[in-house]
Design brief:
mainly alpha, 75% helix, globular
């Protein structure tokens, strides 16, 4: 039954609501921004109204089915791990888009909200807000780049383990966290690589000027 529930969650996660909303608005999200078919790119391409709807739907597909399974007692403890992770994987590797989905941020918040009754998702949101404020300050009030945003998402998830430890969550929660960290690191790999490459080139340019 766990495999069946995981399959259901994968299918729910793979529903690319934001991409489909974009098509309804005659916007192919693959042609905007970084080509990500998720909610935040929908916001960029079609405006905040559809963007908010996309965020809500992507959140709910991670939250609603999983919360029912947990509250009804169909899964508990370590059984939650593969089912929760499947929802995020479905969004990232959607069969509806030839196995190429979104970054998985909104659905991540939905999953953590279901598993921890919003506890960890709120903590993650606060961490991201703090990182964003620090990034704005370091960038002298200018908005951050897409690469920096991707970096903050990954660093925020990495930092989240400190909160899990502080709150003494059970070990299976760490399994979900680790899988989630690996997934969003993968989905942001290109941004992380570009950020590293730019920093590396800038470092060498500075060294060349000094010498």
């Amino acid at each position: 039954m766990i495999a069946f529930y995981a399959l259901i969650e994968f299918i729910c996660g793979s529903m690319m609501f934001s991409y489909w909303l974009g098509l309804l608005a005659e916007k192919d999200l693959h042609m905007y921004g970084d080509g990500n078919p998720g909610a935040f790119n929908l916001w960029h391409a079609a405006g905040y109204k559809l963007g908010i709807l996309g965020v809500a739907l992507d959140f709910l597909k991670g939250y609603f089915p999983l919360s029912i399974l947990i509250l009804k007692g169909y899964i508990s403890g370590v059984e939650i791990v593969p089912v929760a992770v499947a929802a995020i994987l479905g969004h990232v590797f959607s069969p509806f888009l030839k196995w190429r989905g979104g970054k998985g941020i909104a659905v991540t918040f939905g999953v953590w909200s279901a598993v921890t009754r919003f506890n960890v998702s709120i903590a993650y949101a606060i961490i991201l807000a703090i990182l964003y404020i620090l990034a704005i300050i370091l960038n002298k009030g200018k908005s951050t780049s897409s690469e920096v945003d991707g970096f903050m998402v990954v660093v925020g998830m990495l930092t989240l383990v400190l909160y899990l430890y502080y709150k003494s969550f059970p070990m299976y929660i760490y399994d979900i966290w680790f899988a989630n960290l690996m997934i969003i690191t993968y989905t942001n790999r290109e941004k992380l690589y570009k950020l590293y490459k730019d920093a590396y080139e800038k470092h060498h340019e500075n060294n060349a000027v000094m010498h």
